[in-house]
Amino acid sequence: MPTQKHRLFIPYRHVTAVTVLVFILILHGVYTPKAVSLSQPKNTVINLDIPLSIANTNQTNSVSVVSYQEKTPKIKSLPQKNEDKIVIRQGDTLSTLFDQYDLGQTTLRNILSADESLLALETLRPGQILYFRYQKHTPNLKEMELYKHAGHRIIYERLEDNAFNYRTIIREGEWHNKRINGKIENTFYLSAQRAGLTEHEAATVTQIFQEQLNFSRAIHKGDQFQIIRGVQIIDNKPTGQTRIESVRIQRRAYEHTAFLFSDGRYYDKEGKSLARAFTRTPLSKSYRVSSSFNPRRVHPVTGRVAPHNGTDFATPTGTKVRSTGDGIVTRVGNHPFAGRYVDIQHGGQYKTRYLHLHRVLVRRGESISRGQTIALSGNSGRSTGPHLHFELHIHSRPVDPMKAKIPLTRSVPQKHKIIFAQRVAQQTNLLDKAQDTTEIAANGNE
Ligand SMILES: [Zn+2]
Questions:
Q1: What CATH number does the domain located at 174-277+411-442 have?
Q2: Inter-residue contact 232 to 219 (CB < 8 Å)
Q3: Which three-class secondary structure state does DSSP give residue 109?
């Protein structure tokens, strides 16, 4: 091989001739392009077993076609389209879909790493849509979109170094009111479903009154109820999302009411909260905050800037974790990066989340009261040491649990009393109308 110095003296036409010759040889497969691979050492071999820590995988170029073909020896034709659309069916998992579309488990792992702070990919539901979008003229994933519904989309985007980040697109749309009217035949749960509520909505109503009303004892045959269900509409179409706007339960001598207010909580008509106030932290004593809520934190393991959607407390493994409010366990899972986790939905628009747990002590669907021990803290998943990661979400968005305005009192704040009274009047009017439409609602056709 000529040294750099010598090459300077070779006439240009010779260089051109040699170059052309090498190209011809490459085209005929005679000359194995070792030099090519040397010039792109990072791209030719993709390590399929990327360790949990992806701190050392800061590849500077995007994945090349060469590397792709090497890890999947079968010949795959380039995608004809720029995008594949997959409607999730029962039993589909991301892993099987990535195999089916030949996207590589490394890419999946990088996406799951980004999803650590969101956990949106943990529970794919039938009917949700996945879009795989490809880099131009390659089979490599450029971005993946999870379309939960028109009001909630998440896009995972490939970065220069093959890691992914995400952005969430939330649209509020409009909420239309639907009236539901029913009479207790046997249990509230069954009667509510006969009147047109879904199982989930019936459970939500039970949870809203958890503190006031024991449905199995206090509700009897002949009692009545009216419910206003909000139906989300975006671009003139229902998104499939509903929420309980108000409830009125009429027992023989008592009446119970619940009105959803703009702060995401349910109050009775006097403005008294139906759920107990929240506690600020899920721990019985105070622990050092080892990492604060930060939308642009440098991840301690990956070294990447990624949102830290919660507060970390330096709790030793085995510390009791307590729910910060009354609620229902909506998810229990084990994520490769987030570790063992629990999600609790609190009546209305509040959700709390607890990650890196050692042991979970509750089950999905279970009713939880404030202060109840739900888990023991730990060090599971991708974690630099024992701690508790705690999140608070309001209206589907994570907020700083230490600073967010959470309801720490039981009543509608004085300054919102007038707006609240207007809301009660408007909803009561609808509940009255619901009561007048017995025949329609009894058939569930409302
Ligand atoms: Zn954390």
A1: 3.10.450.350
A2: no
A3: helix
Smallest Cα–Cα separation from 146: which of 162, 161, 166?
166
- Residue showing tokens 């991301």: 94
pTM (2 d.p.): 0.73
| 321 alpha carbon – ligand 1 mean position (Å) | 15
Q: Check residue 62 and report its DSSP letter.
A: P
**CATH of range 65-170; options 3.10.450.350, 3.20.20.80, 3.40.50.2300, 3.40.980.20:** 3.10.450.350
Distance from C-alpha of 111 to C-alpha of 98, rounded to nearest angstrom = 11
Specify whether domain 289-399 bears CATH 2.70.70.10.
yes
What's the CA-to-centroid distance between 61 and ligand 1, angstroms? Answer: 29
**pLDDT, tens digit (0-9, with 9 covering 90-100), for 95-153:** 999 999 999 999 999 999 999 989 999 889 999 999 999 988 888 999 999 999 999 99
Distance 277 CA to ligand 1 centre (A): 24
CA 421 to each of CA 229, 413, 414, 417, 437: distance values in angstroms, whole numbers, following the listed order: 19, 12, 11, 6, 25
The torsion of the CA quartet 143, 144, 148, 152, rounded to 10 degrees, works out to -20
- Whether 384 and 298 have beta carbons less than 8 Å apart is answered as no
240: β partners: none
